[in-house]
Write a structure and sequence with these properties.
- This protein has 7 helices and 10 strands.
- The N terminus is likely disordered.
- The longest helix has 13 residues.
- The protein folds into 2 domains: 170 residues, no CATH class; 31 residues, no CATH class.
- Helix 5 packs parallel to helix 6.
- It is α/β, with parallel strands linked by helices.
- The chain starts with a helix and ends in a 7-residue tail after the last helix.
- Helix 6 links the parallel strand 9 and strand 10.
Length: 211
């Protein structure tokens, strides 16, 4: 096992962090997949069967829509002061992105990462999810969350956080801050300190999210 594989294994079995990725499907709502082909009478002749079958809609040409992919990881600890509406706005802007949030619970001894949007699906109510999983404390799991972000296939990887990283008990230290800072730099993660700045950056740099 390589050093990186060992690190990933340690994060997956981290005793103080719960990953809720993929557990929210019963609580999500479908919306149009932006990557679905758009049928028209222009573009490549991709669907000859549609032109020949009487029962078909006759739309034999298709142009694939460009999608806004990527992964955004949001620190929702108390110091960030983020509103549910702000997070919902970000999901509306990036419908094809994976968007996740993390924080500790009230005990500040345990943290969690919860996926809010993934593969064209999203949660209905951000506030309800924050309450259900007790996203109400400090940071605690910044580094495990960053490791999760680095493993995601879609790019870019964006981390929205004020950088006040902590560990168990919501305690911080110079070594912990340096660990996260170095990890962000080594893995090409884009660090933005708050949500309004992230929304503004995305609006100014849409090319990073279009595939």
């Amino acid at each position: 096992m390589t050093e990186r594989e060992q690190l990933i294994h340690e994060i997956k079995t981290h005793p103080n962090c719960t990953f809720h990725a993929g557990l929210l499907k019963p609580m999500v709502e479908d919306f149009e997949r932006r990557s679905r082909p758009r049928y028209s009478f222009a573009g490549p002749f991709r669907y000859p069967s549609r032109a020949l079958l009487p029962a078909s809609d006759g739309s034999c040409f298709g142009v694939k829509r460009r999608t806004k992919g990527g992964v955004v990881l949001i620190d929702v600890s108390g110091s960030m002061g983020l509103s549910n509406d702000g997070i919902a706005k970000l999901m509306d802007m990036l419908p094809a992105c994976t968007i996740a949030m993390y924080s500790s619970d009230k005990t500040v001894d345990h943290g969690m990462l919860t996926v809010l949007a993934e593969k064209g699906r999203r949660v209905k109510d951000v506030g309800a999810i924050r309450r259900a999983y007790d996203h109400s404390g400090g940071n605690v799991v910044d580094f495990p969350a960053l490791v999760w972000l680095s493993k995601q296939q879609l790019k870019p990887h964006v981390w929205v956080s004020d950088g006040q990283v902590t560990g168990v008990g919501d305690r911080t230290g110079k070594g912990m801050v340096e660990q996260c800072r170095n990890f962000v730099r080594e893995h090409g993660i884009i660090h933005i300190i708050d949500l309004p700045d992230a929304i503004e950056w995305i609006q100014k740099n849409p090319q990073y999210f279009v595939h």
